[in-house]
Each structure stands twice: as C-alpha cells, then as structure tokens.
Amino acid sequence: MMHLLYTPERQRIAIQKSGRLYQASMDFLTARGLSFPANGKSLILPCENSDIDLLLLRDDDIPEYVRAGVADFGIVGQNVLAEKGIDLAVVEKLDFGRCKLVIAVPEESKIRKPEDLAGKRIATSYPKLLTTFLQKSGVEAIIVPISGSTEITPELDLADAICDIVQTGSTLKAHDLVPLCVIMESQAVLVESPQSKQAKKRFLSQINLQSSV
Ligand code: PRT
Ligand code: ZN
C-alpha cells in the first residue's frame, strides 16, 4: 500500500497515464538513466534508482498539477498548455508528440478561407484557442464544444467545420475533410513548476538539463 504523503525530498514528474505521449515520455526518462517498474494500476510509479515518483495523469490535468507545484515537472503537449491558458516555463522541447491544430472542412464545402466561417458551426475540443483565433481573424462563428472525435460531426450535420489536432492527416481523409488553416503547431515539452524546490535542480542535473528559470 503506497501513501501519498508529502515528501519534499522526492521529486514528482507528471506524465500522461496512457495515450499518445505515454510511451515517448517513458522512453525520454529511461534514456536518461531512470528506471521504473512495470506500469500497473497505480497512478504513482516510484523510480527504482532515484528519488523520483511519476504521477500518471490525464494529459489535460498535467498543467494544473505542475502549476500548483504538486508535480515538480510535467511532460505535456504545447496544445494542452495553450488551451488551459497555463503558462509554465519550458525546460526542453521534446522531439515527439508533434502535431498541428487545424480548422478543416468537408471537401465539397463552400468554405474556402477563414472569413467564410462567419455564422458557421465549428466543432472543437479547443474552444479557447479557437475563440482566440476567430477573434484575431475578425470572424464570428458558432463554437460547438465536443470532447473528442470531432471529425464525425460534419457528416452528422452537427457542425460545418472542425477544429482539431492533425498529425498524419489520415483521420481527416477518412472523413473527407480538408484543412483550411493551421491555428497552432505543437510538440511535447518538459515544463517545470513555478514553485521553487531544491529538488528540482537535482532532477534536471540527473537528466543532464538545466532549469529555464
Ligand atoms: O486520456 P488523455 O486525456 O490523457 O488523452 P487524450 O485522448 O486527450 O490525448 P491523446 O493521447 O490523444 O494525445 C495526447 C497528446 O498527443 C495531444 O494533446 C497532442 O499534444 C499529441 N498528439 C500528437 C496528438 C496527435 N498527435 C493526434 N494525432 N493528439 C491527438 N491526435 C488525434 C487527433 O485528435 C485526431 O483525432 O489523432 C487524430 C488525428 O491523427 P492523424 O494522424 O490521423 O492526423
Ligand atoms: Zn486529454
């Protein structure tokens, strides 16, 4: 039985519990010499050769854990940080999790440029980034908040366009959607908590990086 007692000498690194960033995050840490037991059901994974605990979380929760200092570091997509509006110091851009947040429309759509989105419905799980983009572009559109799989919404007539993450583009293609514009480019980043702790420095030197603040 493991207890979540606050132990200042142990450093906590928040990574995605499962999903697209999990394996690459583990690989990043293990390539830098840290070793972890097999990932069971526990949400805390103690490092076997260092005073480090991994917190395994939904990626959406990582910015808040790091902001609050409950985790000293986190590995998360820039897209998630930007959507949460939580500005954390980036220690290192990591060479994985690359993707783009795009607006896409059905191939046969008359929408051909961002201005054509005026009065149209856009399904997205990135309402904040989309709102900012529309305001900057001077376009008034209707945002349809959806928690995932937006690609299906135009064919079901819930939306006229989508704003979602694209990597290979094959999901867009499978739904006869084409990109209209890119709102943001993203990759995974190692972020650090603004709450200062001596322990943070130790972790960074262990993995051969330096604090950015
Ligand atoms: O459960 P949890 O909340 O932790 O995970 P999640 O389902 O919210 O996120 P997950 O695991 O899908 O993605 C985690 C992070 O990986 C994202 O926040 C991005 O930073 C990054 N990433 C990189 C991607 C993709 N590539 C990606 N292709 N995130 C999502 N996708 C999805 C996209 O939403 C779309 O449905 O994949 C589909 C498109 O992929 P392509 O290759 O067909 O274009
Ligand atoms: Zn998520």
Structural description of this entry:
With 213 residues, the protein is an alpha/beta fold. It is built from six helices and eleven strands. 23% of the residues lie in helices and 29% in strands. It has a six-stranded mixed sheet, sandwiched between helices. The protein has a five-stranded mixed sheet with strand order 8-7-9-6-10. The longest helix is centred in the middle third of the chain and has 11 residues, at 127-137. The chain is elongated, with a radius of gyration of 20 Å. The two termini are 36 Å apart. Phosphoribosyl ATP (PRT) binds next to helix 3, strand 9 and helix 5.
CATH domain fold name of the largest domain: D-Maltodextrin-Binding Protein, domain 2
CATH superfamily of the largest domain: Periplasmic binding protein-like II
Can you give the helix content as a percent range? 10-25%
User: Architecture of the largest domain, according to CATH?
Assistant: 3-Layer(aba) Sandwich
Total beta-strand segments: 11
Distance from first to last alpha carbon = 36 Å
Number of helices: 6
Output the CATH class name of the largest domain: Alpha Beta
* DSSP strand content: 25-35%
Q: What small molecules does this complex bind?
A: phosphoribosyl ATP, zinc ion
Main-sheet strand order equals 2-3-1-4-11-5
Q: What count of structural domains?
A: 2
